[in-house]
TrEMBL record:
<keyword id="KW-1003">Cell membrane</keyword>
<keyword id="KW-1133">Transmembrane helix</keyword>
<dbReference type="InterPro" id="IPR000390">
    <property type="entry name" value="Small_drug/metabolite_transptr"/>
</dbReference>
<protein>
    <recommendedName>
        <fullName>Guanidinium exporter</fullName>
    </recommendedName>
</protein>
<dbReference type="InterPro" id="IPR037185">
    <property type="entry name" value="EmrE-like"/>
</dbReference>
<feature type="transmembrane region" description="Helical">
    <location>
        <begin position="85"/>
        <end position="103"/>
    </location>
</feature>
<feature type="transmembrane region" description="Helical">
    <location>
        <begin position="58"/>
        <end position="79"/>
    </location>
</feature>
<keyword id="KW-0812">Transmembrane</keyword>
<dbReference type="Pfam" id="PF00893">
    <property type="entry name" value="Multi_Drug_Res"/>
</dbReference>
<feature type="transmembrane region" description="Helical">
    <location>
        <begin position="27"/>
        <end position="46"/>
    </location>
</feature>
<comment type="similarity">
    <text>Belongs to the drug/metabolite transporter (DMT) superfamily. Small multidrug resistance (SMR) (TC 2.A.7.1) family. Gdx/SugE subfamily.</text>
</comment>
<dbReference type="InterPro" id="IPR045324">
    <property type="entry name" value="Small_multidrug_res"/>
</dbReference>
<keyword id="KW-0472">Membrane</keyword>
<keyword id="KW-0813">Transport</keyword>
Length: 106
């Protein structure tokens, strides 16, 4: 169950990062509220996952999901660059996430 909580926390990290971008520096109400609610939920789920999972594993995977997810949303929804170097960097992050999961023993 901890892995499910961690995955949900990572997805919510992507949600709050995107909402924060759309909030225009917290000047637009709806995305500002979404940012704060998603942040609180993301941190809460991460803390529940950390009851079982090692700190290094949980935090690395949480930030990796957030980083790669935000990267994908930036490209698909915000028109950000998808250069070969950025794609390789994202793939390296994904490989690190997979390796961390495999090495965790959980």
């Amino acid at each position: 169950m901890a892995w499910f909580y961690l995955l949900a926390a990572g997805i919510l990290e992507v949600v709050w990062a995107y909402a924060m971008k759309k909030s225009a520096g917290f000047t637009i109400l709806t995305p500002s509220v979404v940012t704060i609610v998603a942040m609180i939920a993301s941190f809460a789920l991460l803390s529940v996952a950390m009851k079982t999972l090692p700190l290094g594993t949980a935090y690395t995977i949480w930030t990796g999901i957030g980083a790669v997810g935000a990267f994908i949303l930036g490209i698909t929804l915000l028109g950000e660059a998808a250069s070969p170097a950025r794609i390789i960097a994202a793939l390296l992050i994904v490989s690190g996430i997979v390796t961390m999961k495999l090495a965790s023993g959980h």
